[in-house]
Amino acid sequence: MLPNAKFEVVVPVEAVHGGHVNNVKYLEFLENARRPWYEFFFGLGFRAFVAHLDVEYKKEAFLGDRLVIHSAIERVGNTSFVLAQTIQNQNEENVLKAKVTFVAISVETGEKMRIPDELRES
Q: Using CA atoms, how far apart are residues 46 and 53, in angstroms rounded to an integer?
């Protein structure tokens, strides 16, 4: 079963620079939302390595904002797949959209591997 596709964070003071959330902090939020996914992938016999990250910043977020990160598998290839992630604020406005392309690396061999059928069927 896929991990919970919803992750919440309240913007902490250390994420704010110049009055709004620093662009790099959003990437940390996305990474934290992916942690359960990494455990899921490991259970399928592979580690997921980021090959490409495409980010569109849509709206500012501020100290104390409640952000919800939604994650879903968008596309599955032979040895790679794309996880789409969206950050929305407490008003359900899109703050950021990201597409993360991963390569599957076998836990056993350390080599690229075919994406398991369990992920393809999800």
A: 19
29-76 pLDDT per residue, tens: 999 999 999 999 999 999 999 999 999 999 999 999 999 999 999 999
Contact 102, 51 (CB under 8 A): yes
Long-range contact pairs involving 10-18 (C-beta distance under 8 Å, separation at least 24)? 10/64, 10/65, 10/66, 10/67, 11/61, 11/62, 11/63, 11/64, 11/65, 11/66, 11/67, 12/63, 13/63, 15/63, 16/62, 16/63
- What residues are paired with 55 via a beta bridge? 98
